[in-house]
Specification:
It is built from two helices and six strands, in the order αββββββα. Strands 1-2-3-4-5-6 form a six-stranded antiparallel β-sheet, with helices on one face. The termini are far apart. It is of the alpha+beta class and 136 residues long. The chain is globular and about 40 Å long.
């Protein structure tokens, strides 16, 4: 009954249940994301520099918080960069865009669909580009 109106109304009541996805993204604040992303990219940059001594044909550069991997033959460029507003690391490689979330279980950034880590993704992309097995 709506008070003061003298009229009675019935309203349908329903319950909405939202189940949490097992792959629900880990939530972190901006500073935590920046710290984790910077550490991940610096570790990746160091591993790429070591790998470039063993594998010819690519060079890594880390500037302004983004990592670029450039190839001589065939010419190509991969970009690995943090996307702070969505708390993801984005990788552009082989004409695709990969978006990695923080995985608390793996304690690194990983693809939500497959669980492939940032390092594993870059190993795959490098191996495909260089046509040889690259381990970081």
């Amino acid at each position: 009954m709506i008070e003061g109106s003298g009229k009675s109304r019935e309203f349908a009541t329903f319950k909405v249940s939202i189940e949490e996805s097992p792959r629900q993204r880990y939530r972190m604040d901006e500073q935590e994301f920046k710290t984790r992303a910077d550490a991940a990219l610096r570790d990746l940059f160091d591993a790429l520099n070591e790998a470039s001594a063993r594998h010819e044909g690519f060079e890594a550069d880390f500037n302004n918080g983004a990592l670029a991997i450039e190839f001589e033959d065939p010419p190509a460029k991969f970009v690995v960069s943090p996307n702070t507003p969505v708390r993801q690391i984005w990788v552009s490689a082989h004409t695709k865009s990969f978006k990695l979330d923080w995985s608390p279980e793996k304690e690194t950034f990983a693809l939500p669909e497959s669980g492939q880590t940032l390092k594993e993704l870059i190993e795959w992309a490098l191996s495909k580009q260089l046509n040889e097995n690259v381990v970081l």
